[in-house]
Amino acid sequence: MTYFEKVIHRLSRWLNWVAAGAIVVMMLLVCLNIVTRLFGKPILGTFEVAGFLGAIVVAFALAYTSVVRGHVAVGIVVSRLPQRTQAIIDSITSFLGIGVFSLITWQGVKYGTRLWDVGEVSPTLEFPFFPIAYAIAACCAVVGLVLLLDFFKSLAQAVRK
Q1: Alpha helices, DSSP H only, in the chain?
Q2: For position 97, what pLDDT does the model report?
Q3: Is the pTM of this model over 0.70?
Q4: Nearest to 148 by CA among 38, 8, 14
Q5: CA-CA distances (angstroms) from residue 160 to 86, 144, 157?
Q6: If DSSP codes are grouped into helix, strand and coil, which group holds residue 121?
Q7: 90 with 159: CB under 8 angstroms?
Q8: What are the pLDDT digits (tens) for 13-34?
Q9: Is 113 exposed, middle or buried (0-12, 13-18, 19+ CB in 10 A)?
Q10: Count of structural domains within the chain
Q11: Looking at the predicted structure, is the pLDDT value of residue 161 above 60?
Q12: Best label site of 114, 126, 144, 155, fewest CB within 10 Å?
């Protein structure tokens, strides 16, 4: 395992732990809000915070899911092909994924900057939206790095066979 690969895997694991923590916080917040509603004192902004935490959960778990290949893949047809063809197909899909996640990162940064410029905030808590947009863009950049790593591995496997 190369140094670059170790760094990317460590970063993706750390991001996944943040996602797991966000799930726990979201669960506790929602449960606590349900209990406090019974006493007529709901927690202000629970819906907004749960929405922000949901975005964090999804974005921060993406890289680790890509590292462990936990995403949905249709392998029925591809698994019947020769190893070299499978590696070529993996290279192509990784390359296309790099393009997609690069675009998402770029547009996420642009969107976050626009939110920052206009001062867009949530209605109840007045929490700014731009940090969430930047966090999602950063996580997508890490996914792009994971896919770049996969691309080079698949390419090396395709050339080797």
Answers
A1: 3-38, 46-67, 83-118, 130-160
A2: 96
A3: yes
A4: 8
A5: 13, 24, 5
A6: strand
A7: no
A8: 999 999 999 999 999 999 999 9
A9: middle
A10: 1
A11: no
A12: 126
